[in-house]
Amino acid sequence: MPAPSRDITDTVIAITGASTGIGAASARLLLEAGAKVVVQARRRERLDALAQEFGADRVQVVVGDVQDPASATDLVSAAVDSFGRLDSMVANAGIGIYGGILDTSDEQLQVMMRTNFEGTVWAVRAAVAQFRRDPGAGGDVVVVSSVAGLRGGADEAVYAATKFAQVGLAGAPDREVRTEGIRVTAICPAGVKTEFAIGAGRTEGDPELDEYLLPEDVAHAVVTVLQQPRRLRTTQWQLWSMGQGS
Predict the structure, then answer these.
(1) What is the pLDDT of residues 62-108, one digit of tens each?
(2) Can you list the positions of beta strands (E) in 26-129?
């Protein structure tokens, strides 16, 4: 008999980078599965639209930039203040800037490194700290990384480095906090058809994007990980569309 899915109704899930793409799709699928979400991004109007659709009793909005360590503590505090607890953190925020190793400015690289890596560190730390305030309750951390974090590619050296860092970050806490009932998962999709990196190495309307994963595909993986029975965990999940070579 297959293991029954864990019911995530009324669980409280924080999501960074939730205004578009994978983050927005994850928020929507989690809400449809019965969860409550606390969503964070820099653009309030997109987050507010989600809150208006599902209601303030299910969605709380926190505006913030993950480059700032305070954004993570603000996100966790909003979950606890609004819903009384935090059950899961989805560290999804990220940016991509593609080009040769010398083709991007120092400032662009610094923003990408701070967003993709440091932003994930702050989210993971804030979540684990909150989980430990309620010993025995456990919790989930899902890091949305990339297959670029498993194998570097041309024209994405620094981007890939930030994704390798995310994969390493997820793997280490899994070994550190598993005995406390805290699960840590790295989800590593291949290319996803979103506005990600449009104008920074990708071109809107490029037919190649039609072969990519959809954000809902990755969101399905996020929901599936969180619905696993507590007795098991997925530490890493690669996703490829059928149209993409691996």
Answers:
(1) 999 999 999 999 999 999 999 999 999 999 999 988 889 999 899 99
(2) 36-41, 59-63, 88-91
List, for residues 151-162, the tens digit of each pLDDT value.
888 888 999 999
What end-to-end distance do the CA atoms of the chain give, in Å?
Answer: 32
Q: Which of 122, 159, 164, 196 is catalytic?
A: 159
Total tally of structural domains belonging to the chain: 1
- Residue 95 domain-assigned (yes or no): yes
Q: Is 212 a catalytic site residue?
A: no
Tell me the C-alpha distance between 225 and 230, whole Å: 10
- 0.70 exceeded by pTM: yes
CATH number at residue 224: 3.40.50.720
Domain-embedded: residue 6: no
CA separation for the pair 218, 238 (Å, rounded): 10
